[in-house]
Amino acid sequence: ALRRGQRSHNLWYLYGPKAGGDLVLSSDAEVMNAWWMELDPSIKTYQIGTRTPPERSSDASPGTVFDARISLSSGGTQVREVESFDLPSSGSPSERARQQLQTQEQLAALLGCTFSRVGPAQLRAQEVLTSNAKIAVATLSAARLHSIEGQHASLLALLKRNPNWIVEDVLKHVDAEDHPLGPVPALTERLH
Fold it and tell me: Does residue 41 carry a pLDDT above 70?
């Protein structure tokens, strides 16, 4: 996506199970944050791009958009701001950035939420987790439209006979036309 007067940026479209649907994100940092939230056990659900309603914010600020609003497994709520990877690394934030941070911290407190600012260093520290999440979320996205309901009884019988199966062996017992992943059993046969 091209922003007026700026260089082009990535536009990401992905499925977020904890978000309850599809997401459109406009930076690499935002998508890494989403993948991180998907595998973080302390996060129950989240929403992307949550606008603070003006009536809940102070008179000085008509509202703001947080990058994420998170429902924690512990019962609390967190609002999160994600810093872009392409911000200048001058060491000190601009006056506008300091004002935005202060406003967001005040609004989070007013809403009864904790505030978190996630920067490039924190995202890079989560690279292994986000790489794993990318694969897990893609798999969940592909599988969410398929049902194994018709094969439930036969799969249950297989698992009762032997609880220690590997996916390849289970797939050999599933009819290709009924299998949610299509011709996977035939593919595994060709690999041997």
Answer: yes
